[in-house]
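The authors assume throughout that readers already know how a fold can be written as discrete tokens. A single example would do more here than another paragraph of explanation. An entry of this sort, consisting of the sequence and the corresponding backbone structure tokens, reads as follows:
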Amino acid sequence: MFLLILPFFGLTAEYRSSLFSQIHEIIFHGNGGYDWHTVYTMPIWLRNFTYKKLEEHYKKIEDKQNKQTNNLQNKSEIHRPNINPSNVYNSSMPTKK
């Protein structure tokens, strides 16, 4: 008698959860490039490769956004338009006759 936790050869609950999470991430972040059936029937190595590439792509985007945010937060100078107020706001009003 074998001491198996499951009496059949199937997917464990943890593997099923990670599989469906991976499929969801590929479909959602694939920008319409994949449908559920295509991703589900992909070979495992190809699905893992696609998932890693999408993960790397969005990590690079996140790093760029964080870098840009940090650059904006580090600048204390406020840039204002180069307008001379005396020329703009000092105008004569026409008078009624």
Observations:
- The chain is about 60% helix and 0% strand.
- The radius of gyration is 29 Å.
- The mean pLDDT is 81.
